[in-house]
Amino acid sequence: AQRVTQPEKLLSVFKGAPVELKCNYSYSGSPELFWYVQYSRQRLQLLLRHISRESIKGFTADLNKGETSFHLKKPFAQEEDSAMYYCALSGRGAQKLVFGQGTRLTINP
Amino acid sequence: GAVVSQHPSRVICKSGTSVKIECRSLDFQATTMFWYRQFPKQSLMLMATSNEGSKATYEQGVEKDKFLINHASLTLSTLTVTSAHPEDSSFYICSAPDGLEGYTFGSGTRLTVV
Residue B79 in contact with residue B69, Cβ under 8 Å? Predict the structure, then answer.
């Protein structure tokens, strides 16, 4: 079964501080991992996916198969990063996408 | 990029009536559409997967007869909430694999049953 766990419902950091949003997963096959962001009153947007290995808006995430983790990191938080962040997992080939519980990130000035 | 258009964005209906939510893929063909439900301050819960030309696959615990899904064409999938009750009030979101970035999401429908 697919399972995604985001242990922190709320995370608050100061502007300029490093940010790490945790994500752990459980999946028997080869997973595809994603981070989605939802800004206030907007639809879900893809932030990044592990296979593209890109850095978007300064965020990076590395898939650690040994620890079954896909933590999202940014070295210097900005106020505009305040949003809801969801970690998600699917099997290969556009299979169903399962979401974690989400972490609400607040960046304090 | 690929866009999924979802309508209506908000709907209020009376208990016992049915409500249809539409999701259309623009500029791409969506052979598969995922339907999610999101309660306030909670995550997206997958309800069902619709496939063009075949029956939808429902997640455990989701009533098939209550949440009717139709995927009659490569660009349109619909979710009908039948005999709606106040506990069906929620935010419903559709999503389709777009073959590019992965998945694209509709803007959601807020259903309120009174």
Answer: yes
Spell out the residues 6+ positions from residue B37 whose beta carbon is closer than 8 angstroms to its own.
B44, B45, B47, B90, B91, B92, B93
Identify the CA nearest to B29 among candidates B4, B50, B46, B48: B4
Tallying the residues shown for chain B, one arrives at 114
Contact between A99 and A86 (Cβ < 8 Å): yes
**Strands ordered across the beta sheet of A19-21:** A19-21, A72-74, A60-61
Sheet with B19-26: strands ordered across: B3-7, B19-26, B76-81, B67-73
CA distance A84 to A29: 28
DSSP state of B59: P
| Residue indicated by tokens 């304090």 | A108
* 8 Å CB contact of B49 and A99: no
Report the residue of B10, B34, B43 to disrupt the A interface, i.e. the one with the largest count of A CBs within 10 Å: B43
pLDDT tens-digit profile of A48-72? 888 777 778 899 998 998 999 999 9
- The first and second tokens of residue B70, run together, are 């139709």
DSSP character for A81?
G
User: B29-55, pLDDT tens digit by residue?
Assistant: 888 999 999 988 788 999 999 988 888
Of the CA atoms within 13 Å of residue B69, those in its CB half-sphere come to 26
